[in-house]
Each structure stands twice: as C-alpha cells, then as structure tokens.
C-alpha cells in the first residue's frame, strides 16, 4: 500500500470507536487477505488493489454494498471472481469481526420500533401459506364471436362528422 493510503486508513481508524478497532485488530484479517489473494491466483498488482479495497471495507470507509463493484472496477476481476472473493471476505474476515463485536455487546441491535407488532401469546409468521387460484376468463367477454355493430354518432345531424373526409 502507498503511504497516502496507509495515512488515510489510519485517519479513518482514529475516528472509529475503540471497541471496533480492538475487534478488527483481534482478528488476523491481513493474513486472511493474503490467503484469499493466493487462493484466487491474484498477481502482485491485483493483490495490492484487493488489499486496499478490503482494508477500506474492514475500516468502514467503503460500503459493503459497493464492495463488489469496487473489486470489479479497481482490482479488475470478472463477475465470477468478484462473487467468490466477496463471499470469502464476508465469511473469513467480516463475520469474525462482527462476532467479536456481538460478544462484547457493541453490535447494533434492531430497534423495537422496527420490529413487527406481536401481541402477547401470538407468534410472528404463523399464517399458513395458501396458493392463489387463477380464475378462468369469462366466456361471455373473452373472444366474443358476435360481430360488432357500429352505432350511429348522434352528435351530428346527419350522423357523420362533417369535418372528416371520407376514407374512400
């Protein structure tokens, strides 16, 4: 990594809560980045770019939503490699950090106002699934075999629009 990148990551780490930095540093995420790069046969340049993108993800400078796009764009990986590597990063790096945060009681919990209202004695999602039935089309409307009859236009005296030319 370049000195500028290391400095910017250090600045980001300084702004994080101490508990998050401790959780990040208590996992061997740097070694796991190298192992993932080695397992996926990344050359030195791609490995360096991958390390930068993943470090930014670990420290929260990059949204996990944008991470796959960043891998494709900045590292130069195809879609299959992006999916595989992003899944490995999630399982091997992010999940252990999140687990440590949960154990320390620092992980955010779901706010009760965001949960469904369940009254005492009820259970969420206890309604049985019912397949919708498709009603057959009404025979009297579908594909009418009767010939349509043109009704006269009563808006004009003669029944025809005097401003319209005949289509002869």
Assess the beta-strand content as a share of residues. Answer: under 5%
Distance between the termini: 80 Å
Shape by Cα distribution: elongated
Number of helices: 6
What is the H/E string? HHHHHH
Structural class category: mainly alpha
Query: Runs with pLDDT <50, length 5+?
Result: none
Rg over alpha carbons: 32 Å
- Largest sheet, strands/sense/barrel: none
Helix content: 40-55%
Task: Output mean pLDDT.
Answer: 78
Total beta-strand segments: 0
Please provide a brief summary of the model.
This protein is an all-alpha fold and 168 residues long. The protein has helices spanning 3-15, 18-25, 29-39, 44-58, 67-75, 79-103.
What labels would you give this structure?
168 residues, mainly alpha, 48% helix
Written description of the protein model:
Helix 2 packs across helix 6 (79-103), helix 3 packs antiparallel against helix 6 (79-103) and helix 4 runs antiparallel to helix 5. 48% of the residues lie in helices and 0% in strands. It has helices spanning 3-15, 18-25, 29-39, 44-58, 67-75, 79-103. It is an all-alpha fold. The protein contains six helices and no strands. The protein has a domain at 28-103.
